[in-house]
Amino acid sequence: MTNWMNQPQNLFPKDETAFFCIQLEIRPSFGANGLMRLIEKKQGCLFFEYADQKIELNIQLKNELLELLKGIDLSVPPKPAMGVDGTFFELSVYSLWNKFSFNWWGDDVDENWQPLLRLKEKIVALKRV
Fold it and tell me: How far is CA 86 from the centre of its chain?
């Protein structure tokens, strides 16, 4: 897992402070890992980071993405999943040093956990903006 607070990035000057981050890490069995971040700066600006890209986005997108997570009932455990050929995903939401994360294998998840896939797809789609 890559922690946005412990992995310095060259995209922001050192004096800029990020206090909120939605991070999606994609780790396929075969192929390069991907890391995408939506980072909110103290000035209320939201940026999407991917590879060497830094794109400013409407701050309202943060709330739209977080709203998707409200559809998950955390008292319902996900069905067991494992595999050899496929992709492992980790979605983390940070607020300074506080964090919650979801980890899953592949895109075959129960109905309760479908919001994770919708959120993942919205973040991945930002690469094409």
Answer: 18
Q: Spell out the residues 6+ positions from residue 67 whose beta carbon is closer than 8 angstroms to its own.
A: none
- Decide the pairing of beta strands 18-28 and 34-41: antiparallel
pTM: 0.83
Strand residues in 42-97 grouped as ranges (E): 46-50, 53-57, 87-95
Digit-coded pLDDT (tens) for 36-82? 999 998 778 899 999 888 899 999 999 999 999 999 999 999 988 87
> Residue 68: which of 91, 46, 86 has the closest Cα?
91
- Which tokens sit at 16? 């800029």
